[in-house]
Design goal:
The chain is built from 2 helices and no strands. It is mainly α and 90 residues long. The two termini are 44 Å apart.
Length: 90
């Protein structure tokens, strides 16, 4: 339920508290949306990995290795940032 406070009759501290509450609700909604987006990407990557990145063992070459090396370096940047490791270590 959304309450609309009258800015003329409502004390400022109540207006600020209501604005902060609405702002936090919006932030929670955005956070949940981004988390769902990340979960979907991770699920797709896991499925691709389970399928050996669409590579047949008899057809793997150095280009495939280079592609995986690129993917691994991008993921390492993410994990280093998330866990405070590598260049993000304190």
């Amino acid at each position: 339920m959304t309450t609309h406070l009258n800015p003329i009759t409502t004390p400022r501290h109540e207006l600020r508290a209501e604005k902060a509450r609405r702002n936090q609700e919006a932030a929670i909604g955005a956070f949940i949306g981004k988390k769902a987006e990340i979960d979907e990407m991770l699920a797709r990557l896991q499925a691709l990995s389970d399928d050996h990145f669409n590579c047949h063992p008899d057809e793997i070459n150095w280009a495939d290795v280079g592609t995986l090396e690129h993917y691994a370096s991008l993921l390492k940047r993410i994990t280093d940032s998330a866990f405070g490791e590598g260049e993000h270590a304190e």
